[in-house]
DNA sequence: CCGTTGAGTGAACATACGTTTACTCAACAT
DNA sequence: ATGTTGAGTAAACGTATGTTCACTCAACGG
């Protein structure tokens, strides 16, 4: 079964972009990337159904992707390699969070609560990626865990830069700022698990979760504000 | 293959504790608990080799326990039930930490650093339990994750009581204290993963890890100390 | 236009899996 | 002493797994 039947034996076949409408068949490379994406998406979908990545089998991933098992090897050596690709993809999603926050600018009033709500929205609209990060960052394959920690570390480093650029907490040393952001990141990712576990249509639990999260961050930044380097 | 060959067809068989030396064969129930423990230990051992719990198969768990697959069903309905037993067992280990800290008393000078070192030691001497908690608390089976979160919550609640009993941070409301302890617990468990991932014989990385952990806690408690309820 | 390339196929394999079944035989209650 | 009980066994089952192979046939490059 070919997933995308070719529209025509060969379209015009002369011009590079022959017709704006009724476009040329997708290039070979594009198709390959598409299948690759289907494999990654298939794995994420299975995890979305409450499965750990390390419990997935190659065959069910290919099944979820709508592809025969042997095709898998055209894209990845084994499941770990697929996992690493997912880490990278999730890392991009993670960095988009910072980009969005930068774009919107940080409000001066009720900064924390608003950031938390942005974050919550981000987690919900990329639930599979956050599910993957939060789920595999602690356990499973050491190689994947390590890759996720590296991605986290990268994220924290970017957050340090952003705070410097915004002139937030200028009294803190870079080292301390780094420690602060590390703490904030782990708190965020922990909250992600809570957000993803929220039962649907439970505004009460939702409010409590957000409140708790905001208060934790408030406590942390309060500590940061009174921090003295040589303690 | 019978794991514990009976010492004698039937020992004295009259007295309840017939001989202090050359003791009576273990009771039926005792043997059963022993096998059950071997199954749980087998699963933990496999996880110690860098495997996620959800990736374990029933057969390899029984293999690691030195028992035939069918025996498994005498003890657990399925692997999830075994997992829940592990959560409970790990919860006990977790509570022992508080008990030990209570027994030693909390030092007044360099309180945080000393507590961190006690914790680090505790994690290292119960590495499989902490590996299990840290590994399954985020991902894998939802039922196990939920059970772990409940255990964590219980732990945090006990920590609140202890702080009240010690008169620490008396100005904080119970709600805030609860939030504080929740934050401390997630920070602790996150640190556990780092501790367990420490390469052996790397005192440099070890010191950095401890330092970072201490500074994070210092920041948190600094924030707690200046917290005002109606902010 | 036509030969090469390589993503996706379908079949086959050896192995591992979860679960059930009838069994043994020591500990137990009587 | 004797019959019951139940933890652990050995074997068998149907199914799922990872990996390999020769294949097809559309996009590609000359």
In terms of topology, how is this protein built?
2 copies of one chain form a homodimer.
Chain A: H1 28-48, H2 58-65, H3 79-104, H4 111-125, H5 127-136, H6 142-166, H7 174-197, H8 203-226
Chain B binds a DNA duplex (30 and 30 nucleotides) through α1 and α2.
How would you portray this structure in words?
Chain A contains 8 helices and no strands. With 231 residues, chain A is mainly alpha-helical. In chain A, α4 crosses α7, α6 crosses α7 and α7 packs antiparallel against α8 (203-226). The radius of gyration of chain A is 22 Å and the shape is elongated. Chain A starts with 27 loop residues before the first helix and ends in a 5-residue tail after the last helix. The model of chain A is unreliable at 1-22 (pLDDT under 50). Chain B binds a DNA duplex (30 and 30 nucleotides) through α1 and α2.
């Amino acid at each position: 079964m070919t997933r995308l039947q070719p529209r025509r034996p060969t379209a015009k076949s002369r011009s590079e972009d022959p017709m704006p409408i009724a476009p040329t068949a997708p290039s070979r490379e594009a198709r390959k990337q598409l299948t690759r994406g289907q494999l990654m998406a298939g794995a994420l979908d299975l995890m979305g159904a409450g499965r750990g990545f390390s419990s997935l089998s190659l065959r069910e991933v290919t099944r979820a992707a709508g592809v025969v098992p042997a095709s898998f090897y055209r894209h990845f050596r084994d499941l770990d390699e697929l996992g690493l690709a997912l880490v990278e993809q999730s890392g991009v999603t993670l960095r988009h969070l910072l980009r969005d926050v930068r774009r919107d600018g940080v409000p001066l009033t009720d900064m924390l609560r608003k950031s938390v709500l942005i974050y919550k929205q981000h987690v919900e609209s990329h639930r599979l990626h956050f599910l993957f990060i939060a789920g595999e960052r602690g356990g499973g394959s050491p190689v994947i865990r390590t890759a996720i920690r590296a991605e986290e570390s990268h994220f924290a480093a970017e957050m340090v830069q952003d705070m410097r650029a915004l002139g937030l907490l200028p009294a803190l040393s870079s080292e301390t700022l780094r420690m602060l952001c590390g703490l904030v990141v782990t708190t965020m990712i922990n909250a992600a698990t809570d957000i993803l576990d929220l039962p649907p249509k439970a505004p009460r639990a939702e409010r409590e979760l957000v409140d708790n999260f905001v208060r934790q961050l408030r406590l942390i930044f309060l500590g940061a504000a009174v921090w003295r380097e040589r303690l």
